Amino acid sequence: MRAVRYFGLNDVRIVEDMKKPIPSGDQVLIKIAGAGVCHSDLHVIDDGIVPNAPFTLGHENAGYVEEVGESVKEFKKGDAVLVYGPWGCGHCKPCKESSENYCDNQASQAAGGGLGLDGGMADYMLVPSSRLLVPIGDLDPVIAAPITDAALTPYSAIKRSLHKLTPEEFVVVIGIGGLGHTAIQILKAVCGSRIIACDITDDKLEFAKKMGAEFIINSSDTDAADKIKEITGVKKAKVVLDFVGATSTMELAAKVVSLNGDLTIIGLSGGHYPIAFGSVPLGANVSIPYWGSETELIEVIALARQGKIKIKIEKYPLTQALEVYDKMRKGQLKGRAVLVP
Questions:
Q1: Closest by alpha carbon to 211, among 192, 238, 183?
Q2: What is the pLDDT along the chain (341 residues), one digit of tens a residue?
Q3: Could you tell me which residues come within 8 angstroms of residue 3 by beta carbon, excluding any fewer than 6 positions away?
Q4: How far is the first Cα of the chain from the last one, in angstroms, to the nearest whole number?
Q5: Angle of helix 178-190 relative to helix 294-305, nearest 10 degrees?
């Protein structure tokens, strides 16, 4: 079978002669219908943040059950499923609570398929346990693949602040990429707060407007914070979601988040910002959430089946994976790219 393999820093190749896996025990073999291409992949490829090379890339995966191990009872050939991305030990308390993204043993094991273990940028993917599969009903797996991260990650970040996202408040979304444009849709679906979208390009700001943002601000403007505060008034924004994570966006977020507000950093751009008395408003909560729970993935799937989340995707054949990564580096993708074997 074919697979997009990571062999080490800056070394990605499309391999044509991978052996098709055979599941046993509780393992499930998935025939991949779509594998999302995530900006996190570039941190693996270009920065070498994940050891254990070689392995197959792709942590946003959807497809059909092809074959099951002898212990699997709840799935059968042809079932349409998503693969839950963060793989924990399956035995600790967070894992038992469906939060394998916060597994107690995370430091001693690979993060999941495509992140140290074989992922879904291939014709087939071997999933180590049936507990990691979530049925998607009548959703198209190609369109649904990015839900596992591009929707789950912002949904989980938003959910932790949902009690503060009341109709009289403002929420700022910084970075209107694969996760940011989905976050706007999720906010529209789950709360009544007014949405301010920030990005450095006009086309992405117009895109944010189409997704449901009420206000748009170019975050590269030197007076971006003042423009946001003109909208919010003295109370500023109760929640700020930073999907970039650069020093400049963190600085902007700290200037516009309210007293007792939430400043949530989701982006992986490697920025730095001092957290100390006086650097953020009093009572502000600063958090760096990671992915989301499997229970939350089930909730996100429900939103997608109701038509409330529609991730903008660009389809590419598996053989164009290297070109897609180049486009991502150059900022030429709008929404989410999905590789289709």
A1: 183
A2: 999 999 999 999 999 999 999 999 999 999 999 999 999 999 999 999 998 899 999 999 999 999 999 999 999 999 999 999 999 999 999 999 999 999 999 988 888 999 999 999 999 999 999 999 999 999 999 999 999 999 999 999 999 999 999 999 999 999 999 899 999 999 999 999 999 999 999 999 999 999 999 999 999 999 999 999 999 999 999 999 999 999 999 999 999 999 999 999 999 999 999 999 999 999 999 999 999 999 999 999 999 999 999 998 999 999 999 999 999 999 888 778 999 99
A3: 14, 15, 18, 56, 118, 121, 122, 123
A4: 10
A5: 80
Cβ atoms 283, 307 nearer than 8 A: no
Q: Give the pairing type, strands 336-340 and 28-37.
A: antiparallel
Question: What are the C-alpha distances in Å from 234 to residues 95, 173, 191, 273, 327?
Answer: 42, 19, 22, 23, 41
- Say if residues 287 and 262 touch (Cβ distance below 8 Å): yes
Nearest to 224 by CA among 98, 232, 301: 232
According to DSSP, the residues that pair with 133 across neighbouring strands are: 83
Using CA atoms, how far apart are residues 13 and 18, in angstroms rounded to an integer? 12
CA distance 88 to 111: 7
Spatial CB neighbours of 140, under 8 Å, sequence gap ≥ 6:
none
CA distance linking residue 266 with residue 69, whole number of Å: 36
